[in-house]
Write a structure and sequence with these properties.
382 residues; alpha/beta; Urease, subunit C, domain 1; TIM Barrel; 8-stranded parallel beta sheet; 27% helix; globular
Length: 382
């Protein structure tokens, strides 16, 4: 798209909260200006026919481990972040949190420095940093390296506080097994988004940590204590506690659609369930394998697995996740679109939706109107 002033019509417009029919979206000098009735579009306007497609704000993904053939863990530097951002932009994401999986302290330092440089350089799409570990539970490690999991000490704590001064959006995934409520409270007070995950903690422990300041949960149902009739676990805490929001990997593999449907209906607000890709190096490529800390991860039939069969991230993008929510789970299309846009954006303090004078022409998506197929629909960034 070369025009800086253009009008989109002939499809449905999602403004971040609601879908609009028979409306047109005007962009002036490359920035969203207004929604108007299609009947108000004049013949002299530069118009793009959506041909029944849906125009949406760009997706926001808070869990991105890699993309474009690279993993953040393997090379936590500015070049890697640039490649990742470009790969996910091609998949519809205009804001991502590069995610460092449990690693050595020097890798954490390198990741913090890389994101700080990316923000200073204004690399489009890089909105902050997500540190998924190393302060997790070995019992619920998933694909994380157990030998690198450890308690949060004073040096770790101070490093996070210092990182927050240069990285406005800092999300950390921690387990109660390896962090204290006092640490969580002080980190949350500093503006760090504390997410519980990779934990075997019981319901009461999770509730105590939520009261301390944890406001988020990482990939609902996966690598956490499950919902039982006498012990609700972290899954039960997500559904019962309104202050908790949670990401979910909606690929139809990590969570069965029937289970996700039940959770979606049961979730207590105001916290919400939102979509994450948990994507790895193969995102935006046709590659069939990659390596993480010397361990081979294979891509086959929509799955990413270690040689022992353990799921290692997801072969997923958020357009596909929206399709799964709508078609396999039965979530309303507006809710599914919110779960990829305004809900995660709100969690990290980004402007959400089509904001007049803020949303840029290059930060919108055009997705196919036909959502009946679970295959990946075309995403066109304008």
């Amino acid at each position: 798209m070369t025009q800086t002033s253009v009008t989109f019509a002939g499809g449905r417009i999602f403004d971040g909260e609601s879908l609009h029919d028979a409306m047109a979206a005007r962009f002036r000098e490359g920035v969203f200006a207004e929604l108007v009735p299609e009947s108000a579009v004049t013949k002299d306007e530069a118009a793009v026919d959506l041909k029944g497609d849906i125009l949406t704000p760009g997706f926001v993904d808070l869990q991105v481990n890699g993309g474009g053939g690279v993993m953040f863990n393997e090379s936590p530097d500015l070049d890697t972040l640039t490649i990742m951002a470009e790969a996910h932009r091609s998949l519809g994401c205009t804001a991502i949190l590069p995610t460092l999986i449990t690693d050595r302290p020097d890798k954490t330092t390198a990741a913090i420095n890389a994101v700080r440089k990316a923000l200073q350089a204004q690399i489009a799409g890089i909105s902050g940093l997500h540190l998924e570990g190393p302060h997790l539970s070995v019992a619920r490690k998933g694909a994380h390296d157990a030998s690198l999991i450890r308690p949060m000490d004073d040096a770790d704590f101070q490093q996070l506080l210092e990182a927050k001064t240069n990285i406005p959006v800092l999300k950390i995934t921690v387990a109660p097994e390896n962090v204290t409520p006092d640490q969580v409270s002080k980190l949350a007070q500093a503006g760090i988004l504390v997410s519980l995950g990779h934990t075997d903690a019981d319901f009461e422990t999770c509730r105590r940590y939520a009261k301390a300041g944890a406001s988020c949960v990482t990939h609902l149902f996966n690598a956490m204590s499950q919902l039982g009739n006498r012990e609700p676990g972290l899954v039960g805490a997500v559904l019962n506690l309104g202050q908790l929001s949670s990401g979910v990997i909606a690929d139809g593999i990590h969570v069965h659609p029937a289970v996700l449907q039940a959770a979606w209906k049961a979730k207590t607000g105001p916290g919400k369930i939102y979509l994450v890709s948990d994507s790895m190096a193969v995102a935006g490529t046709e590659e069939t394998e990659f390596f993480l800390d010397g361990r081979r991860i294979c891509r086959e039939n929509g799955r990413l697995t270690l040689d022992n069969g353990t799921l290692a991230g997801a072969d997923l993008d958020l357009t596909q996740a929206i399709n799964v929510l709508v078609n396999a789970v039965g979530v309303d299309l507006e809710d599914a679109l919110r779960a990829a846009t305004s809900v995660p954006a709100g969690l990290i303090g980004l402007p959400s939706g089509l904001a007049p004078g803020v949303t840029r022409l290059e930060d919108i998506n055009r997705i196919t109107h036909d959502l009946r197929s679970l295959s990946r629909p075309a995403v066109e960034l304008n």
